[in-house]
Specification:
alpha/beta; six-stranded mixed beta sheet; Double Stranded RNA Binding Domain; single chain
Length: about 190
């Protein structure tokens, strides 16, 4: 019997660890690289003349937040920013979508959870259905070979837009860009 209890406890600990890992805060990121891309062959970068976060021809605060964070990450990897005509051209965009989760829980019937009849678990009362709506922000960073006009790396981040994120978008953008660049596969060529 002790072996079954030990296995059950270990299983519960493993499930708890997966749940805690799934509750990680911050953006969920992924990236895609061009097969065979050699990011060490580039030295300079510049930003797209009209990044996706500009609105109506105007530079937005979001544009400034992205440029600041991307500059920090690219410079840390040895790339040098130039006004225009860099080996790499960087573009970025952000968008917000509304999502909905429909959650159904068994209704509490007269015997729900009690003794022998607990197995009925709300089968005789209607389920409670709740719709939860929330906003999700998605950010994309494209690093493009300027001569070939080919995306050599794309970083994507998705995050629920909580009130904390909305109140401090600069910190949220900075953290998301930092997290995306943990997957950036290169450093600049030596001079």
């Amino acid at each position: 019997m002790k072996t079954k209890d030990t296995c059950a406890r270990l299983s519960l600990i493993a499930i708890a660890a997966v749940v805690v890992a799934g509750c990680e805060t911050g953006a969920q990121v992924r990236s895609v690289s061009e097969p065979g891309a050699n990011l060490a062959s580039y030295r300079t970068y510049s930003f797209a003349a009209t990044p996706g976060t500009n609105r109506g021809g105007n530079v937005t605060p979001l544009t400034t937040f992205f440029e600041t964070a991307i500059t920090r990450e690219m410079n840390a990897r040895g790339y040098q920013q130039v006004e225009s005509g860099g080996d790499l051209m960087i573009n970025f965009n952000a968008r917000v979508t509304e999502k909905a989760d429909i959650q159904s829980t068994p209704g509490a019937g007269p015997y729900y959870g009690y003794g022998y009849y607990g197995y009925r678990g709300g089968l005789y009362a209607g389920p409670e259905v709740q719709t939860v709506r929330y906003k999700v922000g998605t950010a994309n960073i494209d690093v493009v070979d300027a001569k070939r006009k080919v995306v050599v790396w794309e970083g994507i981040a998705e995050q629920e837009l909580t009130s904390d994120v909305m109140q401090n978008p600069e910190a949220a953008v900075s953290a998301a860009v930092t997290k995306m660049f943990t997957q950036f596969p290169g450093r600049a060529a030596a001079s």
